[in-house]
């Protein structure tokens, strides 16, 4: 009985602390990701009107936070007690001379999600499949907008990396997916399953549109050192 009362008291205090924090309406999405040679792992995405957060779940101290207002991306490392700051920059790289793109649509029917039709696409560059995509048309449109903003901001930094990479080590798919067509996998609806050219797979397993994001979820650790990507490259 004493143990039961203690547990109930702990639950009440936890709920009281949670309720005392200001919260923001959000969508929360859960994914299973897998890379070749690596065991599958779960990830989470939280999207509000002002922010997009990516992490590995509720207790994750390492996370990525995208400020949608000013376009800054923050990558938080708890092990290094550091925040890597990625600022917006234009794409100044010129595309390769040979750079053609196609979309192949699979006529097969797939189970709908929340009444939204799911279609299978192959996104190709220079006749090589760069994305294997299953997209649900009209699903989570607000999340799609946030992801587009994030990918377009990231493209400028990816272009800088590509510019410093020898041509013989560049991939047409990498350039298309990350620099010149960074949102093409978002043009057909929400990607419920996506496989890139490296074999990395991301699959949506659950989501909620009535989530409440606490202030702590959208806050950077004030005590962590901040380092810009330009400073990191200069080291």
SSE blueprint and pairings:
Blueprint: H1 2-20, E1 23-34, E2 41-47, E3 51-55, E4 63-67, E5 72-77, E6 82-86, E7 101-105, E8 110-113, E9 116-125, E10 128-136, H2 141-163, H3 172-180, E11 190-196, E12 201-214, E13 225-228, H4 229-234
Parallel strand pairs: 6-13
Antiparallel strand pairs: 1-2, 1-12, 2-3, 3-4, 4-5, 5-6, 7-9, 8-9, 9-10, 10-11, 11-12
Strand content: 35-45%
**Biggest beta-sheet profile:** 13 strands, mixed
User: What is the terminal-to-terminal distance?
Assistant: 60 Å
SSE pattern: HEEEEEEEEEEHHEEEH
Strand pairing plus helix content: what structural class?
Answer: alpha+beta
Short summary:
The protein is of the alpha+beta class and 235 residues long. It has four helices and 13 strands.
Explain how this protein is built.
- By secondary structure, this protein is α+β, with helices and mostly antiparallel strands.
- It has a domain at 101-206.
- Helix content is 24%, strand content 40%.
- It has helices at residues 2-20, 141-163, 172-180, 229-234; strands at 23-34, 41-47, 51-55, 63-67, 72-77, 82-86, 101-105, 110-113, 116-125, 128-136, 190-196, 201-214, 225-228.
- Strands 1, 2, 3, 4, 5, 6, 7, 8, 9, 10, 11, 12 and 13 form a 13-stranded mixed β-sheet that branches.
- Strand 5 (72-77) and strand 6 form a beta hairpin.
- Helix 2 (141-163) crosses helix 3 (172-180).
- The protein is globular.
- The model is unreliable at 1-18 (pLDDT under 50).
